[in-house]
Amino acid sequence: MAKKDYAYAVGRIRVLETKLLPVGFFERLLNTTSLDETLRLMGETDYGSKDCDADFENILEEQLLEVYHFLRRQTSDAPELLVFLRRWDIHNLKLLVAAEAGGHPSRLGVTPFEELEEMVTNSEYTELPLEFNEVLENLPEGGPERAAALDKAYYGYGRRILGKCSQLLGDYWQTRLDLINLQIFLRLRNANASTKEFFKFMVEPGIIESEKWAELFNAPYQNLALLLSNSPYQNLLRGGEEIFKYLPFLERETDNFLLEIIKEAKMISLGIEPLIGYLLAKEREVLNLRLVFAGKKNKLPAETVRRRLRNVYF
């Protein structure tokens, strides 16, 4: 689909954006006193058109599946869109070749799980992106190493596609690379891993080069804070050094940071960016619903769940 053709699709997206759940609705969910009451409140939304007595996780997946199919039709499977959907193919490939325990195949990818399974059985990957193909034909020995290689392939593929098609999407992806590496850096450092382990798992660098991460790996946290304060990521430090020690807080703040970048898509009227913005907004909405329902099922205090919720698109 040519870029000029997205005007109609963007018009439809503007209508759908008005149906995204506002922050006040999540506050109402948090204030319910039982899971049944939470489900009844969901009846006021598009999610209520589903059978809320069914497994709510399946309801959320079905919602995402409908959004993905809608966007694929609107864009005729534009390469930029597929970048964001291929992460589910990576999830399924990890199940097939990295023997990741406890995972379940996802229906959300571009290539159905059964087709990926056949590709792995026949060692035939030509229908997948080049980066995936190269890794699958030269898989490392261990499961974690295979999973890391697939992650590297995915983020390299995203940079190749998005870096040449849109300034906004290219900037978004470059930021995502750095923030993924920040999470890997802190998770491994807090586990007393080595610099060598970090390089095994880090993805392509964004604006923070590999050498800089290596210099900081065994340095005090203040050095990392200084690096971030002199980078586009300085706003991550608003919560202080807690961000370095409490990873769920870091994950929330990085998600919020990425959302602020993609919100610029609301100012674009013709390109594919508003469609990607809506996709990410819907995924954010589903993540927040998962967090609320997990909190209700496990009887967590509302404030505990509130601290984990991400900002919304509007």
Key terms:
V-type ATP synthase subunit C fold, mainly alpha, globular, 3 domains, 64% helix, 314 residues, Topoisomerase I, Chain A, domain 4, 0% strand
Which consecutive residue ranges, at least 5 long each, have pLDDT under 50?
none
Count of domain modules: 3
Query: The CATH topology of the largest domain is what?
Result: Topoisomerase I, Chain A, domain 4
The CATH architecture of the largest domain would be: Orthogonal Bundle
Q: What integer is the average pLDDT?
A: 91
List how many beta strands DSSP finds: 0
The H-level CATH homologous superfamily of the largest domain, spelled out, is: ATP synthase (C/AC39) subunit, domain 3
* CATH structural class of the largest domain: Mainly Alpha
Instruction: Give the termini distance in whole angstroms.
Output: 27 Å
Number of helices: 16
SSE sequence, one letter per element: HHHHHHHHHHHHHHHH
How would a textbook summarize the main sheet?
A: none
Structural class, by secondary structure, is: mainly alpha
Beta-strand portion reads: under 5%
Helix share bin: 55-70%
Tell me the overall shape. globular
From the alpha carbons, calculate the radius of gyration and give it in angstroms. 20 Å
Write up this protein.
The structure is a single chain. This protein has 314 residues and is mainly α. The chain has three domains: 121 residues, Orthogonal Bundle (Topoisomerase I, Chain A, domain 4), CATH 1.10.132.50; 87 residues; 104 residues, V-type ATP synthase subunit C fold (Up-down Bundle). 64% of the residues lie in helices and 0% in strands. Helix 5 crosses helix 6 and helix 7 runs antiparallel to helix 8.
